[in-house]
Amino acid sequence: MAHRWTNKLTRADVTPEAVFLNRRQILAGLGAGAVVGLPGRSAAMEDLEPNTLEEISSYCNYYEFGTGKGDPKENAHMLTTDPWTVTIDGMVERPGDYSFEDIMSRMTVEERIYRLRCVEQWSMVVPWNGFELADLLDLAGIAPEAKYVAFETVLRPEEMPGVKIPVIDWPYVEGLRLDEALHPLTIMATGIYGKPIPNQNGAPLRLVVPWKYGYKSIKSVVKITLTDSQPPTAWNKYSAREYGFYSNVNPNVDHPRWSQATERRIGDGLFSKRSPTLMFNGYEDEVASLYEGMDLVKNH
Ligand code: MTE
After folding, report:
1. Atom 5, ligand 1: which residue's CA is nearest?
2. pLDDT digits over 120-148, tens only?
3. Which three-class secondary structure state does DSSP give residue 124?
4. Ligand 1 centre from 279 Cα, in Å?
5. Chain center to CA of 81
6. Cβ 215 under 6 angstroms from ligand 1
7. Considering only CA atoms, which residue is closest to atom 3 of ligand 1?
């Protein structure tokens, strides 16, 4: 479908296509110091070296399967992801249940390499496969009165051992303003490294909003509702003071209990140097205009 792709921070910028697959090995051979001297590489792009599938699928947040970083990998195989339907309702022209197969048959899946910055001060870089959320919403037809998009994760206590504990008010819910949802950087991911997305990363489809803290990127979505009022979000219900609706990555706005100025990249080792966190997670050129004139401290 016809949505343009404006993210400048793509793999093509980072390294010539042909070199990509061997890049880790090449870098390992050169030693980290050699990377810095390569011409035309900004610090932001340096950060876009993808993590391995092993790293991405082993260190996860998916509290429905437990709160430990390794719990989702242990437990998420219990989730049945086929058959899967996404209910799209509310202020849409064609409300209904859309099967995953039907969605996939109508979407063009492409690769997007995004940095994921967690509110817990770590980050990783993931080569997602997916399609723009805007294209999925087009299927249902957005009604003119819609202003927000609400999302809901599947809730199956018999398959999700973590929901026995009321860490948050299940099901996990999230929300975006409609213009954020329609932004070409906002995708529904269905794969990683060209393979179906691992259950622990949100199979069969999950939201990815790269300029926001990771908790906005809700996993295993079963319901999308278009509405005219700001939807509740799981972490905001848990603590409104700590987790705002917007949750844009912002190194200048601390979490009440810790700084958000720097991050540790997963895979770099516990004693590696922390990197400065970038405004909007490095996507400032693409998304800053969405928030023009807004107080980003108040609207954190
Ligand atoms: N979605 C659901 N349903 N449950 C969760 O616990 N955790 C969020 C987000 N989506 C979460 C979720 C958080 S805190 C982060 S950082 C990302 O998923 C982590 O995605 P990853 O495990 O694929 O890296």
Report:
1. 62
2. 999 999 999 999 999 999 999 999 999 99
3. strand
4. 21
5. 19
6. yes
7. 219
